[in-house]
Amino acid sequence: MTSLTHFDDEGASRMVDVGDKPTTRRSARASSLVRMQPATLAAICDRRIAKGDVREIARLAGIMAAKRTAELIPLCHPLPLDHVSLEIAAAGADSLRIEALVEVDARTGVEMEALTAVSVAALTVYDMCKAIDRGMTIERIQLEAKSGGVRGDFARGPAGDQRT
Fold first, then answer.
1. Which of 33, 101, 127, 153 lies 20 to 30 A from 119 at CA?
2. Model confidence pLDDT, tens digit, residues 126-141
3. Is 161 a catalytic residue?
4. pTM summary value
5. Catalytic: which of 8, 17, 53, 127?
């Protein structure tokens, strides 16, 4: 395991200096799962939630969150994102799967932006539906894949973590 880069030799917090790193195309894909009662999922899919179209509002919240990640996560570099997209779809009879793709030409990766996007989108689903289903759970917030940078690509495989 490598040393943690967000601390100096005395243990003080610091933002990692990426000034000497080359700018490369970087992308990250993350996902989350929101479990709920089947009736709640049906109401979301049929657009019967009183607060509005849950999937579209969650999609917008996720995009907005990705763009503000550096304001939420300490020491995270602010990045001029080129692309953010979210897919939100039913996964079985009792859950929504949320997946974000984030892309940028930069000196540092966009994993945190993708993870923030799916986290805030999932929280938005919860907020919009909590009046009818307080038992919802947010699960498996995880990085699915990343590309770009000197550490190489990463892809989560069916048998666990795998680097490519």
1. 153
2. 999 999 999 999 999 9
3. no
4. 0.89
5. 127
